[in-house]
Write a structure and sequence with these properties.
177 residues, Aminopeptidase, 8 strands
Length: 177
């Protein structure tokens, strides 16, 4: 039996709203986004609605990223609450129409601010080492490379690919633009 999760608060920024998923319409929208070639390259096997439901919205705590009333993507987290190891790990994706507009940074900042207010001082994220767009975005927030995770994940081509572990201390968070 799984443990019930506390509802997440809605988080709002100037252009981004983070909200709880609203069931099947969001599952379908997220599956469509995950099938877009520029997104599927990094989230290659997630474009099936059953998989989105089972492995994202029902399994991982996170928010739908909404822009102008549209489902633009997903941001999920893992919160370590052990006092000696407190940190939050993040992961996110955005639909192609929302790329290169700073929306991922805005969504990540909202989550970082939320958890910093809860006493977290450190955040991690682990994009594919070849995902230059994501790495630029996270670097602009203040994330720093920690190391390469060799053969970290299997790619769509069936071969293993490296990941880049990055972390951010709240004291290093870049000023909001």
């Amino acid at each position: 039996m799984s443990e019930a999760r506390a509802p997440l608060p809605e988080l709002r920024g100037p252009r981004v709203r983070l909200r709880a998923h609203a069931g099947e319409p969001d599952v379908a929208a997220l599956a469509r986004i995950l099938r877009e070639p520029a997104v599927a390259r990094w989230w290659h096997s997630m474009g099936d609605p059953d998989r989105v439901r089972a492995e994202l919205v029902d399994a991982e705590p996170g928010w739908v990223i909404e822009v102008d009333g549209a489902c633009a993507g997903w941001i999920q987290f893992y919160e370590e609450t052990e006092p000696d190891y407190r940190h939050v790990a993040l992961d996110l994706f955005l639909g192609t129409a929302f790329h290169d507009r700073g929306l991922g940074r805005e969504a990540a900042r909202l989550v970082i601010d939320h958890f910093a207010a809860r006493g977290h001082h450190r955040f991690t994220i682990d994009p594919a080492a070849a995902n230059e767009r994501a790495i630029r975005s996270y670097t602009a927030l203040g994330f720093k490379p920690v190391g390469v995770l060799r053969d970290y994940e299997r790619g769509a081509d069936g071969t293993w690919h490296d990941g880049l572990l990055m972390d951010l201390l709240v004291s290093e968070l870049a000023p909001a633009s």
